[in-house]
Automatic annotation (TrEMBL):
SUPFAM superfamilies: PLP-dependent transferases, Winged helix' DNA-binding domain. It comes from the Bacteria. The keyword Transcription applies. Keywords: Aminotransferase, DNA-binding, Pyridoxal phosphate, Transcription, Transcription regulation, Transferase. Residues 11-79 form the HTH gntR-type domain. This is PLP-dependent aminotransferase family protein. In the C-terminal section; belongs to the class-I pyridoxal-phosphate-dependent aminotransferase family. GO terms for molecular function: DNA binding; DNA-binding transcription factor activity; pyridoxal phosphate binding; transaminase activity. SMART domains: HTH_GNTR (SM00345). It holds the Pfam family Aminotran_1_2. The keyword Cell wall biogenesis/degradation does not apply. It comes from Actinomadura soli.
Length: 473
């Protein structure tokens, strides 16, 4: 291995080498069986005598950390590494807000029928095409924007490709200059908080709504207020007067699934204009629409430049491809670039270059068309089976888009807690979310969320049948 030893001063050189190697072994950086450099090589590298290195090695060997084999070299001894971590005692303490923050979603081990919302079918992804493009990016001059001068907003080629893509597929009005490449919705929200909000500001979110955004806002010191939704989407008449920002999913409300009606979208824009409020529009899966009229985004209806539009490629392509985007008006271009610069300047440059080519070659549009056909079939099958096999227990929420369907628990004397149902379903190998998990500040909506991105069409009936058995038990 390549070992670097930094020496301060020239006194007790053998002791310095001993202590640094011992720490590396205890920390697990040097593992059992790892070879140490020969004494002659390490002495030459550190410009000290070979005997000095030998003294340090001998001391470590005497204490049971190293072993030498004639003709082979010096190695870390089995049992010498204790995997020591950072000091357990420290005066440092996190801010109180982090005591109440926990990750979402919870792990779901043992899932056989995976109905968790938000997961695409990675088997539909064109791996060969992506591998070809990525190989070309790594071999060529595609990454010709040096890290020292690159634009924090992202590679220019990708921002141009994104602007064209969302203009054609989503009717979003954007030029390349309006686009900031992000690692997804979470980073987009983090940038918005940095640029536009102050600790203590009130941010309104849909209730029920997307937990990670609520968690991020809370951790950033925002006061999060849940606003109820109905069949037309966010209740504009219930927005808090003191709100500085509103986060919405108008094309496909998460998690219930209904779109925001045109009158409600216009009312929201009017309310924001009168109160000087920023609207964050999260359009997370609008490519997957299976019926009805196309939903015009708030951003395209906005005449005042107060809508910030976010999207992600994780739902379209693969969750591990952490790339998304934020569309912002010109007045905020510089601020968002600087916010991106101070948070993560050059994230995922090879993936950015590959995605630009993937879009430019028409492969993204082709992948969306192909996967949309498959997801439409799953959407229809889930709706049919939930309405049939579980129709006496659940009421489907009408939805014509996305990668999930939601259903509320019917009222009745036998009604049970949706979290209990989800927990028992997991024990039977069925993974899905309870609607109550998405409650913000109001009374929780009770029901179940059926994602169909990660469960094959042929497996849907068996999975829902297993859920029926759990609910009957």
């Amino acid at each position: 291995m390549d070992l670097h030893v930094s020496l301060v001063g020239r006194r007790d050189l053998a002791g310095q080498i001993y202590r640094q190697l011992r720490a590396a072994i205890l920390d697990g950086r040097l593992r059992p069986g790892d070879a140490l450099p020969p004494t002659r090589e390490l002495a030459r590298r550190l410009e000290i005598s070979r005997n000095t290195v030998g003294v340090a090695y001998d001391r470590l060997a005497a204490e049971g950390f190293l072993t030498s084999r004639v003709g082979a070299g010096t190695f870390v001894l089995e049992g010498g590494s204790a995997g020591r971590g950072a000091p357990s005692a420290s005066p440092l303490r996190a801010r109180d807000v982090w005591e109440g923050v926990s990750a979402w979603p919870r792990p779901m081990p043992g899932v056989i029928w995976d109905f968790r919302a938000g997961l695409p079918d990675v088997g539909l992804f064109p791996y060969e095409a992506w591998r070809r493009i990525m190989s070309g990016v790594l071999r060529s001059s595609a990454l010709d924007e040096p890290a020292s001068v690159g634009d924090p907003a992202g590679l220019s080629g990708l921002r141009e490709a994104i602007a064209r893509h969302v203009g054609v597929s989503r009717s979003v009005r954007a030029s390349a200059g309006d686009v900031v490449v992000t690692s997804g919705t979470q980073q987009a929200m983090d940038l918005i908080v940095r640029v536009l909000l102050e600790p203590g500001d009130v941010v309104a979110v849909e209730d029920p709504g997307y937990p990670p955004v609520r968690i991020l806002l809370t951790a950033a010191g925002m006061r999060v207020r849940g606003v109820p939704v109905d069949a037309e989407g966010l209740r504009v008449d219930r927005l808090p007067d003191e709100a500085r920002a509103v986060y919405v999913t108008p094309s496909h409300q998460f998690p219930l699934g209904m779109p925001m009606s045109l009158p409600r979208r216009r009312a929201l824009l009017d309310w924001a204009r009168r109160r000087d409020v920023v609207i964050v529009e999260d359009d997370y899966d609008t490519e997957y629409r299976y019926g009805g009229r196309p939903i015009e985004p708030l951003q395209s209806l906005d005449e005042d430049g107060r809508v910030l539009y976010t999207g992600t490629f994780s739902k379209i392509m693969r969750p591990v491809l952490r790339l998304g985007f934020l569309v912002a008006p010109p007045s905020l271009h510089r601020a968002f670039r600087m916010a991106r610069y101070v948070s993560s300047w050059h994230a995922e440059l090879p993936a950015q270059a590959a995605l630009a080519r993937f879009i430019d070659e028409g492969l993204l549009a082709r992948h969306i068309r192909r996967s949309r056909r498959e997801y439409r079939a799953r959407h229809e099958r889930v709706a049919e089976l939930v309405g049939g096999m579980l129709g006496d227990r659940l009421t489907l929420v009408p939805s014509e888009a996305g990668l999930h369907l939601s259903a509320t628990l019917r009222e009745g004397p036998g009604r049970r807690d949706d979290a209990v149902i989800a927990r028992k379903a997991l024990g039977a190998g069925v993974g899905l979310f309870a609607l109550s998990e998405f409650a913000v500040t109001g009374p929780p909506v009770r029901g179940l969320v059926f994602g169909y991105g990660a469960v094959a069409l042929r497996e849907i009936e068996e999975g829902i049948g297993r859920l029926r058995h759990v609910m009957d038990a």
